[in-house]
Amino acid sequence: MSETPLDLQIKTLPNSPGVYQYLDAEGTIIYVGKAKNLKKRVSSYFNKTHDNGKTRVLVKNIESIKHIVVETETDALLLENNLIKKYKPRYNVLLKDDKSYPWICIKNERFPRIFPTRRIIKDGSQYFGPYTSMKTVSVLLDLIKGLYQLRTCTYDLAQEKIEADKYKVCLEYHIGNCKGPCEGLETEAHYHENIVAIKEILKGNFKDSIDVFREQMSIFAENMQFEEAQKIKEKIEVLENYQAKSTIINPRISNVDVFSIVSDDSYGYINFLQISYGSITRSHTLEIKKKLDEADKELLELAIIEIRQRFNSNSREIYVPFKVHLGDELKVTIPQLGDKKHILDLSIRNAKYYRMERFKQVRITDPDRHVKRIMAQMKTDLRLSVEPRHIECFDNSNIQGTNPVAACVVFKNGKPSKKDYRNFNIKTVVGADDFASMEEVVYRRYKRLLDENQPLPQLIIIDGGKGQLSSALKSLDDLELRGKIAIIGIAKRLEELFYPGDSIPLYLDKKSETLKIIQQLRNEAHRFGIEHHRNKRSKAALNTEMETIPGIGEKTIVDLLKAFKSAKRVAYAKLDELEAVIGVSRAEKIYNYYHKNED
After folding, report:
1. How far is CA 412 from the centre of its chain?
2. Phi–psi pair at 170, nearest 5 degrees
3. Could you tell me if 98 and 74 are in contact, meaning their C-beta atoms sit under 8 angstroms apart?
4. Where in this chain does the record put each UvrC family homology region profile domain (predicted)?
């Protein structure tokens, strides 16, 4: 068999780091990937059977391969990131290049202005950011405005124009917000001292500014200028308060990026914290939609490159929850304890909160996506072969051995389907035998569904431990349904999940959505069963002394119990009270019956 052009392309790939591009029959790039070794990585797509369906479809659509050799793995990461954003290949995760984040600009001027902007102009000005919210920018600018007197006008303050008295001070000077450089009332050197201090504050370094202010306060105090000293003291307090609020770890930890990831079957959520002098100067969470069941490591590496590019990060060290490969230029730390572990845990918590918020939003805006995610999660958590779109849960109810009943509740797409709920009166079991009762109701339920050609559930949940589960299995065996429907039992005390033939229970995370849905099913089955049991006992209670009274039927008894609340009150009721409820004739029968032995 002759080799195809694709086979030849794969065989002649170099054993070098680089980026590969898969093209379809139309020449469209459908996937971009990076590799330490191009030949090994690309060959792996064609040498094995892939579990993921989308990967199999991708490989089937590959008609040709392009590659770009680079010097290092870091270069490959950067190039992969840029090509994904440029071509947006169908099978790659989506990286949205958001240009709308706010920045703080220190304008390239003789007396620089400081202001927020969303546009970067390459004119020599300095930009700090981008920040993830305008609120952060406003807080920082308010802080700076309270500490330093800076101009806000747009005048061209060239030396010759100031010397020519071209400008006059404005209201900002008179209220103390500006020192009047437009009239030469402040030197360029002094103004730039403030700008240097402001740059340090924007980097998260408060120490230098606090030290300078303390020195100024001492000088004013020594010269008996107590009012000026008090103003400086207030500035120190403002800075220290801001520092105390923003510093959450050891101030010695500086110029570090922290990344963490939480994910599910469909999305990865990567949180980024930028740390400067112990303060969080930036926080951002990136949501990435999976395309080929990408692993957390792969998503995290891609996100780190994307986020550091997006936010112009030059940090030389990153904290991550597990080992990632980002080249030799970057120090990768996996914290185990102490302040470093504390800040990594904070990042993970931020990613989890973001994921929860997105779930709540999606539940409202895109219920189909929400259901799909929940079903996929349940399939994974419960080790099922299919998504449990249709679940049925059984519970027995017999209080003190009387009126044994059972309930079957039905959930479809993770929500109660109350029209499908069913109650069962136990027919073949004498006394309180939970195991035999469970065997009976499971058999009756699925015998009927089979007879009526109704759809069967993908999952059955038995409220009980191994005994009840074994009983339910007997019925499935009798109906030849063993293996066709997944079945598990849930023990009440420790929320243990039991599987057929497995003596070791499964324990789900107490906060997992899968366990919450199972608990909801169990609680709903219990509620529905108790309600039916209560109704049955109420009907049995009508089998009272009143039923033996000639000419008194069930409807009359119900009317009396509704009016008087108990049979005892009916017995002690006056004749006119009875007449008001059931009429003269029947009232006399009731009254005479209960008072026949009176003198």
Report:
1. 23
2. -110, -170
3. no
4. 262-476
The single-letter DSSP state of residue 94 is P
At 220-262, the pLDDT tens digits run: 888 888 888 888 888 787 777 766 555 456 667 778 899 999 9
Overall residue count recorded for the chain in this entry: 599
Q: Would you state the CATH architecture of domain 545-594?
A: Orthogonal Bundle (1.10)
CB burial string 480-506: b at 16+ within 10 A, e below:
ebeeebbbbbbbeeebbbbbbeeeebe
545-594: same fold as 5-87? no
Q: Which fold has domain 5-87?
A: GIY-YIG endonuclease (3.40.1440)
Q: pLDDT digit string (tens) for 424-435?
A: 887 777 666 778
User: Each residue of 323-381: pLDDT tens digit?
Assistant: 988 877 788 889 888 888 888 888 888 888 888 877 777 777 777 777 888 888 888 88
Radius of gyration of the chain (CA): 37
C-alpha to C-alpha distance for 497 and 466, rounded to whole angstroms: 9
Question: What is the enclosing helix (H) or strand (E) of 593?
Answer: helix 584-594
Question: For residues 130 and 245, what is the distance between their CA atoms, to the nearest angstrom?
Answer: 21
Alpha helices (H) in 153-225, listed in sequence order? 159-163, 171-174, 188-202, 207-222
CB neighbours of residue 214 within 10 Å: 13
| In the chain, domain spans | 5-87, 103-246, 256-363, 383-538, 545-594
Closest CA to 525 of 419, 412, 396, 402: 396
Interatomic CA distance for residues 75 and 278, integer angstroms: 30
* Higher pLDDT, residue 548 or 256: 256
Please return the burial class of 170, using the count of CB atoms within 10 Å of its CB with bins 0-12, 13-18 and 19+.
Answer: middle
Q: How far apart are CA 529 and CA 394, in angstroms?
A: 9
Whether 533 and 399 have beta carbons less than 8 Å apart is answered as: yes
Nearest to 232 by CA among 222, 242, 217: 217
Q: Tell me which fold the domain 256-363 belongs to.
A: Nucleotidyltransferase; domain 5 (3.30.420)
Which residue carries 């209560």 as its tokens? 534
Structure tokens at 163: 């010397």
Spatial contact of 489 and 469, defined as CB atoms under 8 Å apart: yes
Structure tokens that stand for 576 in this block: 């006119």
Handedness of CA 293, 296, 299, 302 (dihedral sign): negative
CA–CA distance, 599 with 597 (Å, rounded to integer): 7
Please name the residue that has the structure tokens 């080799």: 3
How far apart, in whole angstroms, are the C-alpha atoms of residue 255 and residue 131?
Answer: 16
Top-level class of domain 383-538? alpha beta
